[in-house]
TrEMBL record:
Designated name of the protein: Acetylcholinesterase-like
Similarity-based family: Belongs to the type-B carboxylesterase/lipase family.
Recorded superkingdom: Eukaryota
Swiss-Prot/TrEMBL keywords: Hydrolase, Membrane, Serine esterase, Transmembrane, Transmembrane helix
Carboxylesterase type B domain: residues covered: 1-296
A single cellular component GO annotation: plasma membrane
Naturally occurring in which organism (per UniProt): Branchiostoma belcheri
Amino acid sequence: MHVLSPINNGLFRRAISGSEGPTSMGTLTVKPQDTAKALGAAVGCDTSDTTAMVECMRSKDVNELYSASRSRDVSAPPDSLYKFVPTVDSVFAPKTPRELLQEGNFERRDYMLGIVSSEGSVLGTSTLNSIHTHADCEAAAADKLRIYEENAAQVTQAVVSEYCSDGHGNHGTSHAERAARFYGDWRFAVPPILDAETYSRLHSGTYFYYFAPRPSFSTRPSYIQAAHGDEKYFLFGPEVNGKTVTSEELEISTRMMVYFSNFMKTGDPNRPDTLPVTWPAYDELGRQYLQLGGMSASSVTSDLYPRQRFFWSQVIPALTTHGSHSHRAAATEKPAAEPPTNDSHGTEVSSGGVDELLQQIQATQYALVGVVVALVVVVSALVCLVGRRLSNSKKLVTKSDKEPMSYHNGSIDTSL
């Protein structure tokens, strides 16, 4: 939000967002009143007048407010995953992050975004270890997707079909891993990818990274590779974090420090200090990004998570009645001509109801493309026809100018 807020204009020139973006799900509410009043009541303030309630709450000790906020009587807003999150306040956030990003009425800053390979680890090992069945996976998804409110049932059904089912892409994976993939894609991975695409249209100094290697010191389940936040151990160095690392990990750490410090100095991760692999800027056409790991020419690749990006930016918005939440991600993604059939690891993704919807969306897009092509052909034909007529008219005028007119019997002979 600091990147998009207009009150921050002139205060900083570049920023880095790790494992989230401005439009990440569940981190904004447009319905904060009930939660605020519940907290006010919990500390003994009159909630009938919100102005008086705020003044009363300001007089309370911070420890009293903190203790009350953890009460079961104070619940998260219906459109948020957390109790207290930013809201549109007309000052810091005059509009939603999605609207601010779309309108582009903010200072252009160099911007780096990135994600790790197992963002869903943030669900926590204890939660993941409790997911053993399809029903467990479905329950975990439904618990998070409640923020879609009246659209929650349709969205949950699609997500369960895509992530929790025994489809082709899920063969050989545990139900816990499937739940982790869902939460990671939805909450942390796809929004930054879409945000990078939108932001890159406004400013060329946009860069994206993907941190994939599992740290040698990780104690998480084997299906978790780079967990949410693991890149910080490499970015700030093993000495700072007190971790014992391998020589390869130390090399990754050193290169990350160079890339990131370069970016903060100049807005370009490739200078002033150079590294063997050039990190290209991100744009909506190439979608190139850098894989932080064993550095080689193949570390630069493109089009991260195509299937997931399509699912969350096209399929889910199609299932909602008014896009109350999904529009934040959907608005950044241009419709794909064809829904991807593979995930980032090259495996086929589950078929079923979601794939049918994908086909419907694809058919609609092909129809629109056909209409556009037909219009282009018609317009081209009209342009050619008009051009020929104008050319013939010019020839007639030129010829008549060169041929002298003759008089016969007092009349003008205009024959050619």
